[in-house]
Amino acid sequence: MDIQNNNFNEAKQIVCWACRAKIGAEDNFCRKCGKGQGKFVPWYYTHWGVIVLTFALGPLSLYFIWRSPSISYNTKWIYTAIISIITWYAAVTIYHIWIFIQNFMGSASIY
C-alpha cells in the first residue's frame, strides 16, 4: 500500500516552467526559483502583458513572448509574424520619411 501511495504523490508533481525543478501540483510558486505557476505567472508573460510590451518595446517584446509559459506555441508564432510585419512596415515608413527629408533639404538650398 505504501508503494501505491508513493506513486500517487509522484504523479501530482509538475515541473517549474522557469527552472525545471519538480514542484507539487498544488504549489502556486516554485520553491526553488520563486516564479509563479499557472495563473500566478507574471503579467508580462500573459497575452495582454505581451501586447502592452509590444507597444512599449517593439520587437524586443518577442523575448517575453517566447519565454511565456501561458502562451501556446502556435500563438507565439502568430505574435512573431504580426510583430515582424509591423516592424518591417515601420522601418520602411521611417526610411521613406528620411528620403523625403533628404530630398527636401537638398532642393531647398539658399544658393
Molecular structure report:
The protein is mostly helical and 111 residues long. 56% of the residues lie in helices and 5% in strands. The protein has 4 helices and 2 strands; from the N terminus they run αββααα. Strands 1-2 form a two-stranded antiparallel ribbon.
Structure at a glance:
By secondary structure, this protein is mainly α.
What percentage of amino acids are in beta strands?
5-15%
Strand runs, count:
2
**Quaternary form:** single chain
Q: How do the SSEs run, as a string of H and E?
A: HEEHHH
Ends apart, CA distance between termini:
98 Å
Share of residues in helices: 55-70%
Radius of gyration: 24 Å
Task: Report the biggest beta sheet as strand number plus sense, adding barrel if it closes.
Answer: 2 strands, antiparallel
Strand ordering within the main sheet: 1-2
The computed structural class is: mainly alpha
Instruction: Tell me, rounded to a whole number, the average pLDDT.
Output: 84
> How many structural domains can be distinguished in the coordinates?
2
Shape: rod-shaped
Outline the secondary-structure elements:
Layout (H helix, E strand, L loop, with lengths): L1 H10 L1 E3 L6 E3 L22 H11 L4 H6 L5 H35 L4
Antiparallel strand pairs: 1-2
Q: What attributes characterize this protein structure?
A:
single chain; 111 residues; mainly alpha; 2 domains; two-stranded antiparallel sheet; 4 helices; 2 strands
